[in-house]
């Protein structure tokens, strides 16, 4: 509600802002002061105010995954934690909070400035502990920090940049050209600020916010200053000339075990003395897999307008487990000029991408690291019609029909029984492969019941269409389409539980969605029953960008339960091409060989068929919670094959070869990819390793010159 008001007001100011901008331009390059009154407050924060897992509508207590983190118990803190947070006030009296978008969650206010501007932050600490404010991405000079208020602060605190309880401090930060976006960058760069005395603990406590540094002329003049004083009527969110909105999302596992308020939060349990802080289950319950401090679909208020540009600013904080793959359902993005619908985030990195939403409705925005997905790192964004017109629907393409079934198979991760790289038996004592292929101690070994996608010739589903190439292994058929085309995929569920097909990168009506989150629309395609079929109609509305290769790869997968379904085997490649890139027989013009490689840890512990596999291949020694047993089921495979058992990777010297690589699974799925004897080109830079996040893809062109 607050957000709606703020935005409407800002848009109303547009005409006068434009005038101001023109006048400023005449004055030359002098920067402006952007003044913010920021207070540090302490308050209770609820990670799930609805009391529900809004992905499926279940109450937290009844939800297997959400209850782990959000259910309050005698020795469990639940969903509400005391935190310290930065909040913006309207003026120096610190009596009124400035309006803020609801989706900001516990983040501090967004500080925005253009190159050559100076950000002036008047910080007042209303909390019970000393804190500070430290920026990234702007120039911060020790002796030019501004006035120290004479209200109880001492020199010692000044040296530490520490503001004591009740104290105040004024920071001055310059946006120097060396920190500003370059021509190749987006118009604005994302940075953060945070408390900096014991940063990891203070960030876990909530003291973090976003900072945006922009090229000149990008920000509207709504945060204007007159003689160093912010005009009271103009303190709402500053908005931009280049996009309709900018949205900031922090993907972080907030570790409440590290919070400075842990003791106080424990005291709010009904049996605080019974809490064992070293208990792994207690610690797990305090790992909040959150987006801006919200979990399981509780993030409110991301409302976008159809056909109006949105800048998404994503950042991750935290340690090495904080690796995230943010998947935007329903619409695509341009990430540094490249078309995608997934943004990957290393710890302490920032991603900025632009979206012009085409598809209306309520869409999911989720981290595709399986553990994070299941732990609630999921949110909704909504696209509404705001009366603006966009480019018309692309038409004139062809309808491409596919017939795909889900079928159970007995899968071998190494059909040869050998480690073909070291030429030894897979169960050789003390070999690396024995861990996964041995059967002692009740381990499952090389064969697992799985479910895979298979292509058929027509809708009778009687004749299997042989795969394009042996190298596809576990992967489903390659679906191919050009911009403007329609994909009509008839899915027959020949397996024994509900499954679906959910594509990346395509546009579709909600009825044809393969994911089963609560959005108020009936979606028969999100859970196709055993023995039933469903025809998905998907459009290729946004193909490769001008800086992309002629074809870009995506994944499709079963999303009835995305983590379990994909670990069970339901995943395949999708190739989206520019117009005219595909020749006869669907193959790509000017390319001799195409290879699709899925690098993943197939976690058989998270397969629907674990119990069945134990029954078939385990023994009386099998203990499904035993660490060695669980490790033996984490199959580090390429297309479901291990130790050199992937067939069909032959190519000829001089062939033009396209490699498409995909990631899937958990946060350990970062693979260095190196093809011995051959370097390969990725997005026009020559390099020989690349990182793959879950559900991200990469295109690699190679011209082999080393026979062998
Ligand atoms: Cu994540």
TrEMBL record:
Biological processes annotated in GO: iron ion transport
Bilayer topology: Single-pass membrane protein
Keywords, sorted A to Z: Disulfide bond, Glycoprotein, Ion transport, Membrane, Metal-binding, Oxidoreductase, Repeat, Signal, Transmembrane, Transmembrane helix, Transport
Enzyme Commission number, as recorded: 1.16.3.1
Cofactor section: Cu cation
Listed GO CC annotations: plasma membrane
Pfam family, one: Cu-oxidase_3
Keyword Transmembrane carried by entry: yes
Gene3D superfamilies hit by this protein: Cupredoxins - blue copper proteins
Signal peptide range in chain numbering: 1-28
Stretches assigned to the Plastocyanin-like domain: 106-212, 474-578
PANTHER family membership: MULTI-COPPER OXIDASE (PTHR11709), PLASTOCYANIN-LIKE DOMAIN-CONTAINING PROTEIN (PTHR11709:SF504)
Family that this chain belongs to: Belongs to the multicopper oxidase family.
Name of the protein in its database record: ferroxidase
Organism: Collichthys lucidus
């Amino acid at each position: 509600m607050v957000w709606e008001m703020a935005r409407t007001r800002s848009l109303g100011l547009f005409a006068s802002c434009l005038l101001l901008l023109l006048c400023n331009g005449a004055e030359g390059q002098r920067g402006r002061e952007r003044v913010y009154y920021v207070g540090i407050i302490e308050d209770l924060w609820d990670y799930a105010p609805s009391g529900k897992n809004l992905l499926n509508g279940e109450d937290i207590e009844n939800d297997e995954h959400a209850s782990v983190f959000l259910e309050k118990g005698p020795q469990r803190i639940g969903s509400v934690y005391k935190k310290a947070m930065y909040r913006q006030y309207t003026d120096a009296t610190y009596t009124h909070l400035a309006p803020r978008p609801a989706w900001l969650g516990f983040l501090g206010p967004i500080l925005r400035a253009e190159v050559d501007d100076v950000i002036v932050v008047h910080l007042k600490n209303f909390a019970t502990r000393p804190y500070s404010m430290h920026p990234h991405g702007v120039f911060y000079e020790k002796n030019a920090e501004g006035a120290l208020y004479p209200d109880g602060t001492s020199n010692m605190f000044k040296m530490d940049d520490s503001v004591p309880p009740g104290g105040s401090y004024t920071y001055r930060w310059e946006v120097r050209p060396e920190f500003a976006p370059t021509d190749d960058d987006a118009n604005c760069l994302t940075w953060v600020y945070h408390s900096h005395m014991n940063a990891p603990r203070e960030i876990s406590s909530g003291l973090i916010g976003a900072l945006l540094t922009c090229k000149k002329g990008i920000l509207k003049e709504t945060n204007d200053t007159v003689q160093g004083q912010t005009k009271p009527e103009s303190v709402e969110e500053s908005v931009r000339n280049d996009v309709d909105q900018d949205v900031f999302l922090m993907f972080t596992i907030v570790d409440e075990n590290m919070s400075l308020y842990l003791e106080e939060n424990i005291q709010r349990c009904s049996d605080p003395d019974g809490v064992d802080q070293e208990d792994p289950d207690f610690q797990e319950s305090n790992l909040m897999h959150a987006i801006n401090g919200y979990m399981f679909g509780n993030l409110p208020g991301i409302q976008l307008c159809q056909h109006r540009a949105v800048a998404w600013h994503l950042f991750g904080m935290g340690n090495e487990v904080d690796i995230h793959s943010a998947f935007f359902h329903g619409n695509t993005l341009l990430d540094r000029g490249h078309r995608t619908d997934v943004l990957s985030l290393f710890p302490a990195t920032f991603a900025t991408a632009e979206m012009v939403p085409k598809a209306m409705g309520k869409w999911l925005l989720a981290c595709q690291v399986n553990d994070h997905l299941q732990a609630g790192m999921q949110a909704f964004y909504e696209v509404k019609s705001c009366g603006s017109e966009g480019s018309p629907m692309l038409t004139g393409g062809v309808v491409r029909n596919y017939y795909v079934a889900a079928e159970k198979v007995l899968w071998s991760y190494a059909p040869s029984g050998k480690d073909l790289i070291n030429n030894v038996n897979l169960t050789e004592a003390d070999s690396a492969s024995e861990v996964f292929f041995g059967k002692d101690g009740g381990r499952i070994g090389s064969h697992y019941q799985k479910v895979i996608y298979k292509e058929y010739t027509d809708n009778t589903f009687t004749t299997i269409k042989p795969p394009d190439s042996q190298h596809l292994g576990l992967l489903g058929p390659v679906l191919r389409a050009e911009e403007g085309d329609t994909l009509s995929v008839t899915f027959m569920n020949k397996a024994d539980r509900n499954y679906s097909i959910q594509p990346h990168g395509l546009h579709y009506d909600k009825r044809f969605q393969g994911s089963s989150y609560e959005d108020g629309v009936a979606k028969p395609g999100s859970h196709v029953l055993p023995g039933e079929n469903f025809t998905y109609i998907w459009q290729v509305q946004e193909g490769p960008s001008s800086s992309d290769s002629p074809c870009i790869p995506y994944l499709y997968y079963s999303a009835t339960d995305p983590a379990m379904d994909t670990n069970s085997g339901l995943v395949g490649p999708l190739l989206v091409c520019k117009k005219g890139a595909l020749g006869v027989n669907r193959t790509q013009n000017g390319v001799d060989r195409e290879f699709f490689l899925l690098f993943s840890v197939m976690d058989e512990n998270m397969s629907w068929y674990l119990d069945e596999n134990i029954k078939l291949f385990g023994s009386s020694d099998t203990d499904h919670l035993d660490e060695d047993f669980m490790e033996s089921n984490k199959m580090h495979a390429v297309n479901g094959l291990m130790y050199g058992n992937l067939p069909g990777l032959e190519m000829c010297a001089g062939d033009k070869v396209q490699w498409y690589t995909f990631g899937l699974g958990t946060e350990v799925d970062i693979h260095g990819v190196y093809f011995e004897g051959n370097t390969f080109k990725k997005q026009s830079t020559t390099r020989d390793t690349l990182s793959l996040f879950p559900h991200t893809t990469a295109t690699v062109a190679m011209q082999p010159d080393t026979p062998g």
